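Posting this for the archive.
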Amino acid sequence: METPVVIKIGGSLMDRAGAVVDEITAAGRPALLVPGGGGFADAVRTLDPPATQAHWMAISAMEMYGWYLSSFGLKVTGRLDVPECLEVFLPYTLFRALDPLPHSWEVTSDTIAAWVAGELGLPLVLVKSVDGLTKDGTYLPELSGPYDCEEVDPFLLPYLFEHRIKATVVNGRAPGRLHAFLREEQVICTQIHPSI
């Protein structure tokens, strides 16, 4: 069986969610999909509640997007298990029980997905609407250490390097690119390989 992965599907891809799910399904890799928050989380930001309430509201927003992803024929789970097929992870109940991350807008679904990948010992694929991470406007195919960037939340890169979680940023708006990456073909992306 091919190596399972954790795949975070960015909320910015809500309008392309069906096509993204199709590419993941066609690739045939066992994967646990972690939904972003998208417009649901944006609504929480607009309301601007205190940090703890915002944290739980935003995780609820991830669940709403998760249920939407499931409408493309996928199972949902609230359990943290290495996937044997394709499932959508609904994080709210587990996160209420464990509460493993700070309550801050600096911690978004990016870092929540990294926590999931770290707990399962699996690589993380961040599917976004960009070709990869940039520094001073320059695309980076690989990263050797954390830095401040606009494409992911501020907590993510330090978290990946501290916990030695392998991750890749792939553009879900480029047709076929995610499928090719999951089939282990060379594609435009940003590889994050913290040293072991």
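The chain has one domain: 5-192. The two ends are 24 Å apart (CA to CA).
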